Amino acid sequence: MLKYATDAQYETFERLKFVFGDRGITFTLIGAAACREYGMPRLTNDLDIVVVPYPDAMAALSRSGEFVVVEDDCPDPTNRTCTQSHTPTAVNVDFLTGGIRINNRCLLEGGIVHDAVPIPYPTGVGDILPLVELIALKISAAISGRTIQRLGKRIRSPEKIEQDDREVRALISVCKLRRDLHLGHPIVERRYREIYDSQ
Predict the structure, then answer these.
(1) CATH level 3 topology of 7-197
(2) pLDDT tens, 97-138?
(3) Tell me, what DSSP letter sits at residue 78?
(4) pTM for the whole thing?
């Protein structure tokens, strides 16, 4: 159950529990809305959800008649991510496949980008991503974003990358985290310590 969502986000999240609930589809809240659930003050208009199995989740959403693909969304050609709007509440939901790397050895002019950690698998039906995994995901996304920028591309804006760092900094403070957090990847852990020390 979401504690800090808007009424519309809460309604959308609860509806997903119903749509996915008896179909063997697991889903977990990630992203800024998950950060907010750990007590970080953060306004966000959408929800980021990781689902497995992704094809079954997309079929269930389509059958529900309540979700429509956002037209200006740039869908992943490998069918691993999409943004859909819950029509009764107008809340956009970014759906991602559990276990993928958004940037998985992407060849860009001048180099290859590989996310340090994958999108985690869902941990239940309508739960919140554990805090350590959430922090690792935020840091990994910022690292990849900066690498892509250095290669001359603007897939993520500098503002969104900085937002990831700010959210990690806020979670450290609000949750009173320690400096030696184990995040599953040495580069991610080094960046975490840099953020921790910059407070």
Answers:
(1) Beta Polymerase; domain 2 (3.30.460)
(2) 999 988 776 655 556 777 889 999 998 999 999 999 999 999
(3) T
(4) 0.91
